[in-house]
Amino acid sequence: MKAVHLQKFGKPEKAFALVDIDKPKCPREGVLVKVEGFGLNFADIMARTGLYPDCPPLPAVLGYDVVGIVEEVGQGVKHFKVGQRVTALTRFGGYAEYAVCDPRAIAVVDDMPIGKAMALTTQYSTAWQCFYNSFRIGHGDKVLIHAAMGGVGSALAQMALHEGAEVYATAGSDEKIQALKRLGVHHAINYRKEDFFEVIKKKGVHLDVVFDSIGGSSVKKGCKLLGAGGSMVLYGAAQFNGSNLFKKISTFLQFGFYHPINFMSKSQSMIGVNMLRLADYKAEKIQACLKGVVKGVQEGWLDPLVGGVYPIEDLAKAHNDLGQRKTTGKLTVTW
Questions:
Q1: DSSP letter at 278?
Q2: CA dist 150 → 105, 199, 250, 280, 330 (Å)
Q3: What is the C-alpha separation between 74 and 80, in angstroms, rounded?
Q4: For a surface tag, which of 6, 21, 265, 308 has the fewest beta carbons within 10 Å of its beta carbon?
């Protein structure tokens, strides 16, 4: 079968190679999926640049989510059958024509468009874990969402609006700001023109929760905006992208340093979300998240934001577009 190897760290034009490798065998407790397309995640960018600690030794096949047709079902699997069209989380191995998937991280999507189906597994499930399982938000709570026109960010915005929260959201262009307003976001902030910290501080607002995928100074600023009982939910560190060592060290220091006593005295918390770690040790949580987002889409209050759909020949372009934050929503690469 065809697969994409990450053969060295660096720019996508030189880092990836299309290769022929053996088709994987379906294990007793697994599902073999013939891949229609695979998704891109910011973790892919970090892995390609050598910044992702979970990346397998090179050469490696990246990829955390796929959409495709069930080709084979292991003898120990009861809830899926050959021929079903599914979206699935993969523990790497997604950049290939076939992928072995854990049945606890699969959802049937029937004829759902590939872009929408792709968004459910990683982006929307991550958002579900952040929003519903990490910090319970109620009507009128004040929420800040960074990178709110990205895959996870747009999902978080929809969830917050559905629960009646007052939503502050950041994005990096006027077009994205307008899109956020169309989505119903109450306070959309272009971070290239305004400092979100100053905007919110001037309003005298104390936030109940901040969802941060940026890292660095945004975390430090966000913590200063939290009110009593507030929480900082971290699910990424986009500022670590790049190869400049000085910049990486600077970004690390900009996070700030926090003592548990400070959180206790203010009744605040900081929560980290890593879906791969949950997939390793508590895959049933992935299954619960998938069920939640699929139900939300079926009920109509969740509408996955679809970004670009690229042919395999344009994988490098897709990586560059995502890394340079040129995109909105989920990016998909098709075979």
A1: H
A2: 22, 21, 25, 25, 7
A3: 9
A4: 265
How many separate domains does the chain show? Answer: 2
Which residues are registered as beta bridge partners of 309?
Answer: 332
- Write out the residue range of the structural domain in which residue 249 sits: 127-275
User: Do 181 and 280 fall within a single domain?
Assistant: no
* Residue 323 pLDDT level (bands cut at 50, 70, 90): confident
Alpha-carbon gap, residue 333 to 212, rounded angstroms: 26
What are residue 170's DSSP bridge partners? Answer: 189
Summarised one tens digit per residue, pLDDT across range 145-193 is: 999 998 899 999 999 999 999 999 999 999 999 999 999 999 999 999 9
| Rounded CA separation 33/72 (Å) | 7
> Does the CA dihedral 280-282-288-289 come out positive or negative?
negative
Mapping DSSP onto H, E and C, the string for 175-204 reads HHHHHHHHHCCCEEEECCCCCHHHHHHHCC
CATH number reported for the structural domain that contains residue 318 in this entry: 3.90.180.10
Place of tokens 């990346």: 55
